[in-house]
Amino acid sequence: MPLRDHFRPPFSESRSWEEVHGGWPMVIVQHLAKTLPSDYAAGPHVHLGPEVEIDVATFEAQSQPAAGAFYSPPDDGGVATAVWAPAEPTLAVETELSDFDEYEVHVYDTRHGRRLVAAIELISPSNKDRPEHRSQFTSKCTMLLRQGVSLVLVDVVTARNVNLYADLLDLIDRSDRSLGEHPLATYVVACRWGPRGRSGWLETWYHELKAGLPLPCLPLWLTEDLAIPLDLEASYEQTCRDLRIA
Question: Is the dihedral of CA 136, 203, 184, 228 positive or negative?
Answer without folding.
Answer: negative
